Amino acid sequence: MGLPSLLVPGTALASPVQPPDFKKCTTPLDPGNGAPSVDCCLPVSTIITDYKIPNLPMRTRVSAHQVTPDYIAKYTEAYRRLRSLPSSDPRAYMMQANVHCAFCDNAYDENGTAVDYQVHNSWFFFPWHRWYLYFHERILASLIGDDTFALPFWNWDAPGGYTIPPMFDNPNSTLYDTKRNPLHRNPKVVDLDYSFSESNRTPQQQLQVNNSVMYRQMVTAAKTPSLFFGQSYRQGDSPGPGAGTVENTPHGTVHVWTGNPSNPNDEDMGTLYSAARDPIFFAHHGNVDRLWSIWKTLGGRRTDLTDSDYLQATFEFYDENKNLVRVKIADALQTENLRYNYQNVDIPWVRRTTTRSAVATTFSGPGGGPSPAMAGPLKEKIKEKYRDFKKGLKEFKADLKDKMAGRKLEKTLKALVKRPRKVKAADFDEEILVIEGVQVACDEKVKFDVYINLVDVDEDKVGNDVAEYAGSFVNVPHTAMKMAETKKGLTDSRIRKSNFRLGIGDVLADLDIEDDDDFAVTIVPRGKPNIPVSIDDIRLEYE
Ligand code: C2O
Fold it and tell me: Which residues does Cu cation A bind (predicted)?
């Protein structure tokens, strides 16, 4: 809960989060898991002006797999110059990376409060990164004196972009980073469902899983603005109230897939303080940014947020002239305002791919299962399976005596969810599964997958290309700790608590259970066992 807005001087009834005061920076920070401490404080400026977008030519961001040799030459030269700026220059390579560290790893408090400032896991995620990329791009452009320069995007959501883009995979290039997973160099296909170990899927199977993840996160689970953009974040709110679907996956999975698991926190890309030290970060976020634009074209209720605490929130960045400037979210809703757009490429996942029900295949053989929107005896058999399965389940109850305040998610959790009302996919309302109070240790990589009515299937083997799959939660490691706290043995601020929300109307329709009074939810933790995760409640919401 935020402070009642009347308590914030001069902001009656409005409380957009204000940028932190750069003078009040905490250093050093502890990245966790034994990694050396870091200092990512940004230079202080006494002058801050409102940014005016200069008169720029319209620029097109191109797929990193489709760039010309000419483009590669310019881009690598811009990075060479960036890397050779003196380290105190606000445009310098490490300063650029530290901008990300500063606003993800709690170097600052929200201005005028004692609450950590955080641009992830809330509705800040898309607009803050859009502005961050904008200024990074402008700095590169000015270093090579070319106003037409635009960043590329890593098109990991389509077969044409499924590998590390070759220009980033060249050890002699200024775009290369040594701290990446050596198993994931070309021609390895990116795993958008990465569960922190190698999946051994064939490229063809991987493609199907990737499409399914994209379809869920962009199309079925994110039909309303709050599902896509993440939870509201106002002045005085605790940081990171809850991420939108895409911020969890594939944004989070691609981060961890790219970083090197031999490093303490999967540096560089696998943890937020070091992620932007890898030049590929900006191409990764180019694609995330592109998905924001695409999402708004998918129809239905998919429009930008209109809350004034969102639109009026401001950020500060150093521009290409080393001036500290202030920008507003409202000015970044359309990429055209920032004078860029994206190359049009095929969007394979937008076509419906997830119709095969896992339980149906237990009757009709692998790959042969029709959608349960099927007729006759098979449908009856499946309904019977569902009934039997649900009979053995109880509703979720958190054990409040537990130290982590909720119930630990050490192994697969199955629970019954009762539906207070029934909503048909065709209705206006979206039915939302809320996993409330998800607590994780910030510095751990965490992923869990959520399924509905997953019966007769081995959870460890099921892929996310089945109709029962509802979505995935991911925590990209980031620290919340000040080194001083670590030294005192304090661990509380290492815990992050947020809500995880998924639109499930289409899953219920696909499983043909829109008329049922209840359903079974299965939550499967992935990755290393015994990573502390707990949840407070599982419930439904309607929006
Ligand atoms: Cu600021 Cu991909 O994280």
Answer: 100, 120, 129
Q: Which atom of ligand 1 is nearest to the CA of 119?
A: 1
Strands (E), 319-425: 324-328, 340-342, 407-408, 413-418
Report the separation in Å between the CA atom of 269 and the middle of ligand 1, taken as the mean of its atom positions.
9
C-alpha of residue 101 to centroid of ligand 1, in Å:
9
Domains and CATH numbers, the chain: 29-350 (1.10.1280.10), 355-542 (no CATH)
H-run or E-run covering 97:
helix 93-104
Burial pattern 353-378, b for ≥16 Cβ within 10 A else e, equals bbebbbbbbbbeeeeebbbbeeeeee
Tell me which residue has tokens 């606000």. 90
What pLDDT shows up at residue 420?
84
Report whether pLDDT(375) > 80. no
Give me the helices (H) in 191-318, please. Answer: 203-214, 225-229, 245-246, 252-258, 272-275, 280-295, 308-311
Kindly state if the Cβ of 104 falls inside 6 Å of ligand 1.
yes
Mind giving me the DSSP string for 205-220? HHHHHHHHHHIIIIII
Which residues are annotated binding-site positions for Cu cation?
100, 120, 129, 251, 255, 285
Q: State if residue 478 touches ligand 1 by the CB under 6 angstroms criterion.
A: no
State how far the Cα of 480 lies from the Cα of 17, in Å rounded to an integer.
Answer: 19
Higher-pLDDT residue of 462, 260: 260
In ligand 1, which atom is closest to the CA atom of 284? 2
Nearest CA to 431 out of 470, 465, 467, 393 is that of 470
Rounded distance, CA 388 to CA 177, Å?
A: 53
In terms of C-beta density within 10 A (0-12 exposed, 13-18 middle, 19 or more buried), how is residue 232 classed? middle
Closest atom of ligand 1 relative to the 288 alpha carbon: 2
Which whole number is the average pLDDT over 6-31?
Answer: 75
335-346 b/e (C-beta count within 10 Å ≥ 16 → b)? beebbbbbeebe
C-beta 130 within 6 A of ligand 1: no
Q: Which residues contact 430 (CB under 8 A, 6 or more apart)?
A: 223, 224, 227, 301, 423, 503, 505, 542, 543
| 0.85 surpassed by pTM | yes
If we measure between CA atoms, which residue out of 417, 439, 422 comes closest to residue 538?
Answer: 417
The two tokens of residue 236 are 């005085």
- At 258 the pLDDT is 98
Q: Does 251 contact ligand 1 (Cβ within 6 A)?
A: yes
| Among the listed residues 339, 333, 342, 345, the one whose alpha carbon sits nearest the alpha carbon of residue 60 | 342
pLDDT tens-digit readout, 92-122: 999 999 999 999 888 888 877 788 899 999 9
Cα 272 to averaged position of ligand 1 atoms, centre (Å): 6
Pair 160, 350: CB distance under 8 Å: no
The rounded Å distance from CA 238 to ligand 1 centre is 19
Q: Which of the residue ranges 59-63, 331-335, 403-407, 521-525 would you say has the lowest mean pLDDT? A: 403-407
What's the gap in Å between 89 CA and the centre of ligand 1?
23
